[in-house]
Each structure stands twice: as C-alpha cells, then as structure tokens.
Design a protein that fits this description.
The protein has helices at about 5-20, 45, 55-65, 85-90, 135-145; strands spanning about 25-30, 35-40, 75-80, 95-100, 125-130. With about 150 residues, the protein is α/β, with parallel strands linked by helices. A 5-stranded mixed β-sheet has the order 2-1-3-4-5. Helix 4 (about 85-90) links the parallel strand 3 and strand 4.
C-alpha cells in the first residue's frame, strides 16, 4: 500500500471523527505485510478521556492484533502531526515508520514545536511528513470554521 493510499484510510477515519463532533484526526497502522492492523480516530469528546487520540487507539489495536507491544515492521499513518503524547507512544511502541499529513503548529512533536524523534530516546522512526497535506489541513480548517 502506498503512503497516499494509507492516508486515504486515515482521512476516512478523520471524516468519521469530525462527523461525531471530534477534531477530525484519523490514523491507521499497517502491519509488516502491509495490511491494516490498527485503526483509530479522535474520541476525546465522546469518551471524556484526554488520551483518546487517534494514534493511541490505532496503536492499541495494532498491538492487540500482533500480540506484542513492539510494532516492529509497521507503519503508522495519521492525518495530523503527532502531539508529544502520541510521539511518545510511537517511540515506546518502536514504530519504525511514521507518515503524517498536516503540520500542527501548537503541539506538533515531529518538528513543528519540537522533534521528539531527535532526542535520545533510543528509537527514531523514519518520518514522511506532508502526505496529502492540503487535504488533511483543509479538513481541519473546515471543522474549526464550522465551530466558530
């Protein structure tokens, strides 16, 4: 599956989140064979849980699918640059490849505010930013314009 195809799936989950009143962020994890083993979307409002981010949902599902906390050989694809919590989860799960769409100027931890992957945590994923950036950013802009 290409990065763009992976982002299509993440965008679909982001739209679903937006339709439920959540910030429209979606995430998928591809397993070593390239199949989807984890899906997630923002659910903070729905659950009242500050940790209910798309990445954490997808990582939990992927770990369950593999039966391991290490997501070696996997790719995480998310519509928005991960925050510090999600970047930390990516590090802790040993995700080797991260693909993301739009930059996050307020909390982006892959270069926008800080790049946690260049700190000395012992794991540095390959990062591919800006995949379907304009579409991901437009989805977020539209969501926040409608809320004002």
């Amino acid at each position: 599956m290409t990065r763009e195809e992976c982002m299509d799936l993440a965008l679909s989950l982001a739209r679903e989140a937006g339709a439920h009143g959540e910030v429209p962020v979606g995430c998928v994890v591809l397993g070593p064979a390239g199949n989807v083993i984890g899906r997630g979307r923002n659910r903070r409002e729905e659950t009242g849980d500050a940790t209910a981010h798309a990445e954490l949902e997808a990582i939990r599902e992927a770990c369950a699918a593999l039966g391991d906390w290490r997501l070696e050989g996997c790719t995480l694809c998310v519509t928005l640059e991960p925050c510090p919590m999600c970047a930390g989860a990516i590090i802790n799960a040993r995700v080797p490849t991260l693909v993301f769409g739009a930059r996050e100027a307020l909390s982006g931890s892959c270069g926008s505010v800080i790049d946690l992957f260049f700190e000395r945590y012992g794991h540095r994923p390959a990062v591919y930013p800006g995949v379907r950036r304009d579409e991901c950013a437009a989805l977020l802009r539209g969501f926040f314009q409608n809320r004002r």
